[in-house]
Amino acid sequence: MHVIGLRTFIAVSRTGGFNSAAERLNITQAAVSARIKSLEEQLGQRLFDRGRNGAVLTAAGQLLLPKAESIVRTWDHATSMLGVPVSRSVLLRIGAQFSTWAQLVLDWAAWIADALPETELELNFDFSTDMLKSVQDGRLDMAITHAAAPAQGLHTLPLPDEAMVLVARHPTSLNDDRMPAYVRLDWGPQFNGQIARIASHLPGSKLSIGNGILGLRYILEHDACGYVPLRTARSLLQQKRLYRVKRAPKFMINGHVVYSEDNPNHLFLERAIEGFRGLRTNSSEPALY
Question: Label partner for 226 (CA 20 to 30 A): which of 2, 243, 261, 281?
């Protein structure tokens, strides 16, 4: 099986069409079709369903994709070590939780573009458990998450702790009879375990919001309170659009960067991680609304 065929297969799966893949690879559409046909014949499986909406991966294609990406990355790493020129840029696929890391990850993307110009970057925003599985399966190169990482085959680097504070639209105090309704925001199991300790001191909650950014918007627009990252709320507190709830405890949760120990692009990953940790230490995330 030729690496060039796998590269073509990956290009079609990313662009969603044979013509788009041909433009990306700077070859003809006929050449793309011939390479995919040859690959399908070698495997004895149809890899794409072709239709009006382009080329869609079949079940066999979905199984092959992470393996094909792993094979191509390994080949590029080997040729790089042997001093063989590689014409393709290095692809880094990064997953992060939008509600926690939104603006910071976008700033990081700009940093990577300047500091690591040889990289091609794909950002994916998903829930922690799905991202960790994607790192294990080879569909992501790294994930930024609050979830604890499974030990098997994954390497974890700590990030600075995240301070979680209780905020409301108007000044108030914990246990105040006039304290607004509490909104449950999902910041992961680590936070949920800590908030359970003071649950009896919070107003009864009838609303849960899985996305932290939507939850913060709800608090800003209604008479409500909830826990959010201090980094995210800092500018809103300074503008007095939000207020810290007095006597409410501050919780600390830790984050991790998780990547596979055998990722052939580990040198690029480690440089990118150092850049992220530097931005994370010095950042104050602006409001997105």
Answer: 281
Q: How confident is the model at residue 286 (pLDDT cuts 50, 70, 90)?
A: very low
Contact in structure between 208 and 218 (CB atoms under 8 Å) = no
Strand 243-244, strand 162-168: pairing: antiparallel
Measured CA distances, 262 to 124, 138, 155, 259, 280 (Å): 21, 10, 9, 9, 26
CA distance 89 to 80: 12
Of all residues in the chain, the percent with pLDDT exceeding 70 is 86
Q: Hey, is 248 helix, strand or coil?
A: coil
pLDDT tens string 178-221: 899 999 987 877 888 888 888 888 887 789 987 777 888 999 99
Give me the CATH topology for the region 90-160+254-282.
D-Maltodextrin-Binding Protein; domain 2 (3.40.190)
Q: Any alpha helices (H) in the chain, and if so which ranges?
A: 3-15, 18-25, 29-43, 59-81, 98-115, 128-137, 189-195, 212-221, 230-238, 266-282
pLDDT of residue 151: 57
DSSP state of 189: H
| 288 band by pLDDT with thresholds 50, 70 and 90 | very low
**Which of the four CATH numbers 1.10.10.10, 3.40.50.2000, 1.25.40.10, 1.20.1530.20 does domain 3-81 have?**
1.10.10.10
Cα separation, 42 vs 256, whole angstroms: 41
Q: Which two tokens stand for residue 238?
A: 């300074």
Q: How far is CA 172 from CA 30, 157, 177, 216, 224, in A?
A: 68, 38, 9, 17, 11
pLDDT at position 75 is: 78
Rg (CA), the chain: 23
Angle at 217 between CA 145 and CA 161, to 5 degrees: 30
